[in-house]
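User: My advisor asked me to double-check a structure prediction for Equilibrative nucleoside transporter 3 before group meeting. I don't want to rely on an old file, so could you generate it fresh from this sequence?
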Amino acid sequence: MDSTARLQPSLNSSYVVLPPGPRFSSEEEEEEEEEYGKDPVRSLDGVPLLAANGLTTSGVPLAAQHSPKDSYCLVYISFFLMGIGSLLPWNLFITAKHYWLYKLSNNTGGGGEEPRSDLIDYFESYLAIASTVPSVLCLALNYLLVNRLSPRVRILSSLCVILAVFILTTVLVKLDVSEHQVEFFAGTLASVAVVSGASNLFTGSVFGISGLFPMRISQALISGQAMGGTLTAVASILDLAATEDVTNSALAYFLTADFFIVLCIITYLLLPTLAYSRHYMLVAKCSGPGAMTEGAGGPSAVSSASIPPLRPILRKVWVLGLSVFYVFFVSIMVFPALSSGIQSVDKASGSPWTTTFFVPLTSFLLYSMADFCGRQATAWLQVPGPTSKALPALVLCRTLLLPLFMFCNYQPRDHLHTVVFANDLYPILFNCLLGLSNGYLGTLPMIYGPKVVPRELAEATGVVMSFFLTLGLALGSAFSVIIVHGI
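Assistant: Sure, here is a fresh prediction for Equilibrative nucleoside transporter 3 from the sequence you gave:
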């Protein structure tokens, strides 16, 4: 077997056994240099590193063999920030519940009961459908474009579309739509669909390029997404406490979103200037589908415009993909359509905790913080492994969370009148459990996926894993409508 075949496993994978040959981990290189000294011509097993054409025998330039360190963790921070921006639009739309209720009910008097209507009662469910269904289509499109359109074009164009829609949303905050509530409702859902499609094109593309890096970079991106949810929940609570005018609160809220989207654009543009990032992109370029290799059968090349082969990817990651699908399928059925409707059992007391702050704190903030903790935990603990049967078993166990939330004090209840967990501590406990399990069990398959396939399929695999995630969100959001109508 020649040296080209020996370099097929993904970069820095802890789960793919690499035979003797050149390595790409800077830690391994440092240990080798200490014991054997630097030798740019010959590897430790005696195989020449340089071919006659000036490349290494693996077809990768010698410069790409020496991985620089991530100075000051700038690449990690960059992907963390892009993770925040990738889910910030969705998190903002679902967390600004009081603003949407104000716009759809025109109830500015305060102190009275919010009027009942289908637009208000089922707004989160409609929002979830409008957000996730276009996402599936855009991620499928992203897979077809992964070798036809550069990540730079896909990422920057999607961010510009998101920014344009959010600027429009910011302008509408101060406009009176009381005479056009149905039109505002339809326009909001259309905006959500556009933002969702663009943000998932952005997310899928960023997930794809993160698969070219070591596992810690994918973990940074996923943790950043959870931090985006936490930041929006904190901002919402602070706005509720600081001002009684919900439009002023929403204005500051959406201006913050505009800032983070611009920050994402700047961060991505600066990414290629970092040596650590350039190194892994160079390795990916040299070993990717468009790279020329010399094998026993002579020169061969795969057109860079071809669609990545789906069958070998699914053969490796179908269990991981289904695990991601079911994790988010269960989560979106519960959060936010069901969990945000759970009210304090002492709401009649009229205290700020039971009326104003109960839902933002117990549903949005606690869930987002627990989700972030679960995702961050995967940086230190990666158990069970990608081939373990315990991983899908734990994912299936999350199904039990659904009846737990249904029998809390969800209001209004039209069909299922029994409240089993009639204490405010129960939704707090259940939201923490939902967030922790979503963060941990949802992150593990996502970071495993691009590392169990050949390096040239890593970017496409990242897009495929994002597709499984979004498909779970889409189907889960549809089921959430049925569950909410059935309670």
